[in-house]
Amino acid sequence: MTSYLDEIRVSYDTVATDYAKLVGSAGSWEIPLLTNFATLVGSTGAVLDVGCGPGRVTGLLQSLGLPAFGIDLSPGMIEVARRDYPDFRFEVGSMTALDLPDGELGGIVSWWSSIHLPPNAYETAFAEFHRVLRPGGQLLVGFHEGTQTRHVTSAYGGHPMSIYVHHRTPDQVASVGTAAGFTPHSTFVTDLDSTRRGACVFFRKPDNSVAES
Nearest CA to 171 among 146, 135, 137? Predict the structure, then answer.
């Protein structure tokens, strides 16, 4: 029986090369958000671009001075990322079972990469983010804003796919993050195009060794 993770992996392997060509430039609203994230993280440790795809956001994080690396479920995406950013670290892996030690990271960016996870797996991913972040670590989650779920059967040049895109509200995402142990501290919502809205929520993993403001 094919799992949803298998469908995501195969779908993004299929579109990897064209995806990198079609989604190659940053939106004007992205840089300020990622810059703010970089300022919050500072020099507290390595930063994971989880669900990194072809490495575009990993490259942006590196350009902002963060020691960023990428993990993606799709070997095809990782192959493209390594081709386009040969000096950066990229690995195949799943955000629902990160092969990283507890408390290793200073920050995590999930840039529209958790949108394919059903509710239970979404909660699992947040638990993993909390586990691998050090106390005081920062998490930035970007996603499609809304309440609907879409089944995508072709995209990025007409290639066949079979993935579900789960839209969520900022309150829903903040609630999942809070349940995982994070403190949400900032939200951003914008129009991606004439039919879609995007949102980002910033989280901090509390540091129980110091007084939280």
Answer: 146
Q: How far is CA 122 from CA 64, 97, 180, 200, 202, in A?
A: 28, 12, 11, 15, 16
- Which helix (H) or strand (E) segment holds residue 75: the answer is helix 75-84
Tokens found for residue 152: 């995508």
Which residues make Cβ contacts (< 8 Å) with residue 64, sequence separation at least 6?
Answer: 34, 35, 38
- Segment 88-142, tens digit of pLDDT: 999 999 999 999 999 999 999 999 999 999 999 999 999 999 999 999 999 999 9
Note whether 209 and 190 are within 8 A (CB).
no
| 54-66 per-position pLDDT tens digit | 999 999 999 999 9
| C-alpha to C-alpha distance for 8 and 161, rounded to whole angstroms | 8
Q: Smallest Cα–Cα separation from 16: which of 74, 92, 71?
A: 74
User: What is the rounded CA–CA span in Å between residue 147 and residue 211?
Assistant: 36
